[in-house]
Design goal:
alpha/beta, Methyltransferase, Cobalt-precorrin-4 Transmethylase, Domain 2, five-stranded parallel β-sheet, five-stranded mixed β-sheet, 12 helices, 45% helix, binds S-adenosylmethionine
Length: 282
């Protein structure tokens, strides 16, 4: 039986052609075929480094049929590299589906790591990098988009989004409507000649891009929700009902008095003793 080939996920530059690793160049030279999201873009890269390779396209609209073809090649023992039009394949592009398919077919999958626009933007944003979420592109469908943004409202981790220039202003407005004003970093044309990083608030970003049409590629890095503010808002919800009513809510749910007092104390951010004493005084 033939030994199957390896699927190499090869990261390529997100703008500056010098951001390619020696190992990426070696693999691109040595594989039997390169599956590229945008063959013209990849050809530019290959020509720049004088690499002669056999190219095939693999993108969102041919990913099913081409995915099967690529798997067939791998099963026949061919080594295949997959590259996206920029950055790391598998991040907001169909590379993700090919990895899944290869794993299902018992094919070895490995990556030649390199640039990712999301991480490049995050690192220079100045916002917390210890915990973050990557959301990619927000859905286009109105309801799904609204639900996604609603879900991000209370997200305390730094949030990373991708956006196309012609949709940037809509996204900034949609975020502002649901989330309110927050710090945002807009990283544009990273690693390219006109790299620009704007650190401002959502409302400032809206006025900036209302006056000036956005051009280029964008990563948005949005500050996470303030945990203290969320806790305060959660506690304020209980300001309008008395302690007795609050305890009764839990007792109606079947908790005994001790457990209900404990839950009330947690909700209000006070000690159990406090709740108990206040109830006794009434
Ligand atoms: N796989 C890529 C990666 O690793 O980042 C991302 C592919 S995704 C289809 C393309 C999006 O990435 C663009 O719309 C933009 O939001 C972001 N992007 C790519 N290159 C960028 C750059 N040089 N500067 C800012 N954003 C970039």
């Amino acid at each position: 039986m033939n030994k199957t080939g390896t699927l190499f996920l090869v990261a390529t530059p997100i703008g500056n052609l010098e951001d390619i690793t020696l190992r990426a160049l070696k693999v691109l030279k040595e594989v039997d075929i390169i599956a590229a999201e945008d063959t013209r873009q990849t050809l530019k890269l290959l020509n720049h480094f004088d690499i002669k390779a056999s190219l095939t396209s693999y993108y969102e609209h041919n990913k099913v049929e081409k995915g099967n073809y690529i798997i067939q090649l791998l099963l026949e023992g061919k080594n295949v590299a997959v590259v996206s039009d920029a950055g790391s394949p598998g991040i907001s592009d169909p590379g993700e589906d090919l990895v899944k398919l290869a794993i299902e077919n018992g094919i070895d999958v490995t990556m030649i790591p390199g640039p990712v626009a999301a991480i490049t933007g995050l690192v220079i944003s100045g916002l917390p990098t210890g915990r973050f979420v990557f959301e990619g592109f927000l859905p286009m469908n109105k309801r799904q988009r609204r639900e996604r943004i609603e879900a991000l409202k209370d997200e305390v981790r730094t949030i990373i989004l991708y956006e196309a220039p012609h949709k940037l202003i809509y996204t900034l407005n949609d975020l502002y409507k649901v989330i309110g004003d927050r710090r945002i970093v807009i990283a544009r044309e990273l690693t390219k000649k006109f790299e620009q990083v704007v650190r401002c608030t959502l409302s400032e970003a809206i006025s900036l891009y209302t006056n000036e049409a956005p051009k280029g590629e964008f990563v948005l890095i949005l500050e996470g929700a303030d945990k203290e503010e969320l806790i305060d808002a959660e506690r304020k919800k209980w300001d309008n009902i008395s302690l007795e009513e609050h305890v009764a809510i839990y007792m109606d749910q079947g908790y005994d008095k001790k457990e209900s007092i404990k839950r009330v104390a947690e909700d209000r951010g006070v000690s159990k003793r406090d709740v108990y004493n206040k109830l006794m005084l009434k």
